[in-house]
């Protein structure tokens, strides 16, 4: 039986890694599963390193003392850019979440204080409000995906559509509630924290889609109706999506 490492053991590994390979770091934040107490025997270490200056932000995957470590290197300027310009428009801010949930294992100075304030400000602000066009696209995509699921008689195809529908519904419900979204396990965790009832409905629908397709189809229809109702309901008739006028190639020849 594999033993789940303690946080203190992981903290020691991270501290040695920083000391040996990144001695100029001014902050080192352990995030992810170890920061939230959800670690398993094979969980990797998410480590955000802050420097006074980097020529460019970077990410490394390495193994330290037998443990996989995901290292993210930033200074305040690159951290701000990634959070606000790259991540936030998609409704997810994993770097800011690492700082909010994690622990700085180096002596805290002014740079970490600014990073801490910035990450919490981004987290509190929430994601950009969905505009009308974005919301319509989502409603239409969910409506057509549900139709595909309900019409499907092939278990494999149905499960693939159910996975797509789960992600779209969870993400829309979070964004409509003004909450940051996430990917993979983090999507479920954020949805559960935001609305445990919808999270349970979606989870149950996915399980039924895999074990009892007709029941899964009905369950997805129910949870889709619940998620879409507050944002305008299903959308098919009248949906239009013009392409930009410049999307054309010159005639061949």
From TrEMBL:
Gene3D superfamilies: Beta Polymerase, domain 2 (3.30.460.10). Residues 18-54 form the Polymerase nucleotidyl transferase domain. One of its GO terms (molecular function) is nucleotidyltransferase activity. InterPro entries: NT_sf, Polymerase_NTP_transf_dom. It holds the Pfam family NTP_transf_2. It comes from the Bacteria. Coiled coil: none annotated. This is Polymerase nucleotidyl transferase domain-containing protein. The lineage of its organism: Bacteria, Pseudomonadati, Pseudomonadota, Betaproteobacteria, Burkholderiales.
